[in-house]
Amino acid sequence: MLEDCKNAQERWGGVHQLIDRWLSERRALLTNFRELHETCDADLETLSKARIDAFSELLMDYISAGHFEVYPQLRAEAEAFEDNAALALADSLLERLDMSTELVLAFDEDYASATRCEYHMARLPAWLDRLQKGLTERFSLEDRLIGRLHAAHAPDAARAEVHAGSSPGA
User: Within 10 Å of residue 77's Cβ, how many Cβ atoms?
Assistant: First the structure.
């Protein structure tokens, strides 16, 4: 029994670490987004393609980590706990997350090459506004996904930590 407990901690503790790392990446992405948006608002002429590329790389890495690392691990955890309600919610939320993924991919495509970036530079402020709305919804959906698929199965201390961290004042 102690061995089962240890294996569960190793398995789901790893999920918790994965989520922590991913949320840290989210904070870095948001900081980078804010700085890009401020630069764009202050002086669009001085904004370099390298600066846009750095943001786009963080954005693509974050989206990829969600789709290929975090979401599958959360589903596996819900499946292991036979939490069919959580799996149904996950399917619903993942469909909605796909919409913001398409938005991110379109942004990346518009600014991928130097020619395309130059062509779309005047549209960057509008693009950033669209991304802000899309990412705001995405983060809310991801938080719901984490809350339902992981925090519901976490030990009481971890569950309290996740709920405390998701409050508006945190």
Answer: 20
